[in-house]
Amino acid sequence: MRRITIAVLVLIMVFALLVGLHPMTPARTRDDYRHKAKDTAESVLSSVQTARLVARVGSRGDAFGPYVSVMLSESEVGADGAQTSFESIQPPDRYSDLTRAHLTELIQRSSDVLSRLRISARRGELDRLEDQARPLRHLSQQLEAFIDDPGPR
Amino acid sequence: MKKLLGVTLGILTAMGGFVDIGDLVANSATGARYGMSLAWAVVLGVVGIVVYAEMSGRVASVTKRATFDLVRERLGARAGLLNLGASFFITMLTLIAEVAGVALSVQLVTDVNYLLWIPLAGFAVWLVIWRVKFETLETTFGLLGLAMIVVVVAVVQLDPSWTQLWHHATHPSVPSGEGHPTYFYYAIALFGAAMTPYEVFFFSSGAVEEKWTRSDLMLNKANVYLGFPLGGLLSLGLMASAALVFHPLGVGVENLSQVALPTSVALGKIGLAFIIVGFVACTFGAALETALSCGYTMSQYFGWQWGKLVAPRDASRFHLVALLSVFVAIVVGLTAIDPIKVTEYSIVLSAAALPLTYFPILVIANDRTYMGEEVNGPVQNTIASIYMVILTVVALATVPLMIATKAGS
Q1: Min Cα–Cα distance to chain A from B156, Å
Q2: Can you say how many angstroms the Cα of residue B241 is from the centroid of all Cα atoms in its chain?
């Protein structure tokens, strides 16, 4: 019984660790790559939309400065993390190269805005956030379009 | 009048103490991803915890002994050890998540990295366990946890279409683009969050600590039948607020801070202040409960002197286990492991271990040698048996679903 107990516990831990590491597996086909690109775009869209909401509540005085700052930092980290993971995937063909270029550009533009928002929030310039977040509206639309049809434009 | 006040306080404490970091994250994440279509899993989990917590409270009141004490005696040392190993591991994971949750909550009002708060949060948890009376800590954090009612107010303020919300909740469906395995993985996460094993260990040990007798069975029923479902309402409030604000925007909940955003959108700074107080109370209260549960389970299994009512020098091993558990939680938390991931694993792995916790309670609650006239009735047994089947299915499905869905990603 003791051996079974230990074996069960070890199995659970190994499974948890394996899954927890969330290994980004290589993309072997174009479809696989598109799928991973779509997942990445969804993740970045989530960060962008969160930042838009936070910028709104921050500018309108509906949230405390430290909270806004933490939220915007996390959004930036989220977008950067998605970008790093995505860029580490080897594109399998020329078409995927174009997909990669397009999505990377979208993420980069999003990250730039998120960085500016985070800097303003840390300086206590909360009233500027809504204006600074304006480009995110268009970027979120572009990301949504990409999610609907992942590929180059 | 005094008794009524005691019952009301018990209900409010049970309600405020129901939500922990697992509920905060799981309900908000599923609301953002699936709208209200997983509300059934919360209801299923709340009914389950009500059935089994009532049973464990009754067992503790009648026998004046806590769950693990009886598990070893009734099921034997080996089966008891299997139970202890799994339960302790899950409770430890939950403690790590809760201590990190306290730190993350404090970060929201200070903007100082949560890693710097983890040692302080852990020290505060240990200090409260060491110095504060059981009843005081249970009531204080339970009542402070009532600040989470603000999420229900926020949902009302967001002015949703109630008909649509109700329709989504009562006509569950898997959204397009989402697979069934991921949907059921999240259902299991919600179920596990509602039925976390430590809640039963703490509840039954608390009944012994507070010297419950047969005359307290009514108090047990009131706490469980009213307090827990009201706590479940807070869980549904978290889900609904995320469903209303995040779901239409395609936002996924990855951080604890996001859980507060719908309330901030709906109620501004006052709402945000309430929900952050609620976060601290819920996570701190749950950290106390899980740290104590580590001490309870270990001491009850090995037959050591245990409890907050016993002088520390007489229950030294109980206090040592609680202290070491908090220390491990601090060390693991400081490795910068993602606290939200730890939370997700703790609730999902809880689900995998549920039968180990709940089956012995069912066995003991049916044993006339222990329970006398307070043995389970046919209705309780029917519901509990149905749940045991559900728990077994959930336990068997958890790990395969975790692998197949890459932990719901």
Answers
A1: 17
A2: 20
